[in-house]
Each structure stands twice: as structure tokens, then as C-alpha cells.
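User: quick one, sequence for these C-alpha cells?
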């Protein structure tokens, strides 16, 4: 059996002096510095790995798609410099704050896309939403990240001229994901849709996309005379708007202003708006 004397000898053999502790600290400090210099410090490796995993988890969108979206957003930023905040824009902005899915409807050339783009930029800048453009229903399944502040953008939803049955069916098959997104308080769906498409009976198969509609040519949201003047001046500051243009009902007024601003027509200003409006209706 061990006696007390043996225990004391063992304790002395393993006892450390202040000098021993000092040298031990120095030895570990030197080793840590060497690991840090070589990039092999365990804590650093753990931190780097954690950050890499977080980035990988957050980046559910392929880099090329992110690049395309960034390019689109840059183009929207340029367009926003001449954008006029109409009552339709204000209404859509109000509705998207309190609703998870908002449809911006109207005829071609009425400014639906411009409003959708401007509202999405506002949500991004003011509320920290990530903008994701969707090209097909599968994009929603692939890019939806629960709990992440995201605004999903769709333009010319389910058809440009008539309701595309194939596209509606594709979205019907994705209803489970649509329901998840709509119920997620962090996410929004904002889309433009032509009136004839939105009012098509086949569209009733997509009830989640009918939760809130902003018809921008309705009596409550159509352009006021003052708004028409502002839009005209933002694109055609060197020309003068006439009463014939101002008081005439021209649903595609924003498009005609933009189109003339890039030198696409040299007609007299009155003739341009009247003839182009009629021709545009016939084509669309």
C-alpha cells in the first residue's frame, strides 16, 4: 500500500512552480501564433467553416441567377429616376405592406411593370427585402427560404395576350409552395398581370393570386391630370402637353411618353398620342 510519504513525493513530482506556469504560457502562446500564421488555428478553422456553411445556406440561388437579378435591379434603378409616384403606386405600396400577395393589373403600356419595379425597390431599400425575379413556378420552390425577407416578382403573369392554360396548370401544381410563401410573414409576392388574363375564368384556379388586386386604370387609381403632366414632363420636358392629350383617356399613356422620348416617332405631338394610342390598342 502507498503511504503518506509516497503521496507527497508524487505530488511534488507533478507540482508546478510559477516559473513552470510562465514558461508553459509562453510555449502555448508561441504555438498559437504559429497556428494563426499558418491559418490552422482551430478556432479560426471553425469560424471559417461556420461562415462558409452560412453563406452556402443563404445562397440558395445560383450565382448566375443572382447576377441576372442584379442586372435587372440596376436597370430598374436607372428607370426609377424618371418614375412618377402616382396614387396607383402609393396604393400598391400600401397593399403589399399589409398583404402577402398583390396583383397589379391593367392593360399593356399602362405602367404595371414600372410600379411593380418601383415598389420592389422601395421594399428592398426601406424594409430590407431581397428581390427575386421568378421566371417559372419551379423558381419559387427552388428559391424560397422560410423566414427570409423576400419579395418575389412576376411580370406578365400567366400570359401577355390571353390566359395561358399551361402556365396556370404549372402554378396549380405548385400550390403547396405558394401557400407556404403566402403564409410566411417574411415573404411577399408582387406581380403584374394584364386585365384580360386576370379576369379570365381559368384564373380562378389560383385563389392565392387573387387575394388583393390593384387595377391601375380603375376610377380610383387611374392617372390624374397632374400625374399625366408629371409623367409627360419626366420623359418629354422639351415638349408641351396639350389639353387634347391631357383630357383624353389614354390607358397606355406612360408607354407612349417613354416611347416618344427615345425618338421613335416624329409626328406632331397631338397626332402621335391619338394615332399611336389607337394603333397600340389594335396590336394588343
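Assistant:
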Amino acid at each position: 500500500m502507498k503511504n503518506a510519504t509516497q503521496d507527497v513525493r508524487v505530488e511534488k513530482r507533478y507540482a508546478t512552480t510559477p516559473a513552470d506556469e510562465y514558461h508553459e504560457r509562453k510555449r502555448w502562446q508561441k504555438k498559437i501564433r504559429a497556428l494563426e500564421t499558418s491559418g490552422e488555428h482551430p478556432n479560426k478553422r471553425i469560424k471559417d467553416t461556420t461562415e462558409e456553411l452560412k453563406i452556402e445556406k443563404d445562397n440558395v440561388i445560383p450565382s448566375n441567377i443572382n447576377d441576372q437579378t442584379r442586372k435587372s435591379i440596376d436597370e430598374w434603378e436607372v428607370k426609377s429616376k424618371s418614375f412618377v409616384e402616382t396614387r396607383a403606386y402609393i396604393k400598391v405600396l400600401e397593399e403589399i405592406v399589409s398583404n402577402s400577395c398583390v396583383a397589379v393589373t391593367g392593360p399593356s403600356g399602362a405602367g404595371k411593370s414600372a410600379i411593380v419595379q418601383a415598389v420592389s425597390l422601395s421594399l428592398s431599400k426601406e424594409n430590407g427585402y431581397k428581390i427575386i425575379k421568378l421566371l417559372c413556378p419551379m423558381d419559387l420552390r427552388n428559391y424560397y427560404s422560410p423566414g427570409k425577407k423576400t419579395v418575389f416578382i412576376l411580370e406578365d403573369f400567366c400570359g401577355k395576350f390571353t390566359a395561358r392554360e399551361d402556365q396556370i396548370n404549372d402554378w396549380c401544381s405548385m400550390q403547396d409552395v405558394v401557400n407556404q410563401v403566402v403564409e410566411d410573414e417574411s415573404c411577399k409576392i408582387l406581380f403584374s398581370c394584364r386585365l384580360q388574363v386576370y379576369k379570365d375564368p381559368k384564373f380562378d384556379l389560383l385563389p392565392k393570386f387573387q387575394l388583393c388586386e390593384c387595377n391601375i386604370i380603375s376610377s380610383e387609381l387611374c392617372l390624374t391630370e397632374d400625374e399625366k403632366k408629371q409623367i409627360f414632363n419626366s420623359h418629354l420636358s422639351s415638349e408641351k402637353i396639350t389639353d387634347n392629350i391631357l383630357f383624353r383617356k389614354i390607358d397606355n399613356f406612360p408607354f407612349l411618353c417613354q416611347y416618344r422620348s427615345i425618338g421613335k416617332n416624329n409626328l406632331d405631338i397631338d397626332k402621335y398620342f391619338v394615332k399611336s394610342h389607337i394603333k397600340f390598342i389594335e396590336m394588343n
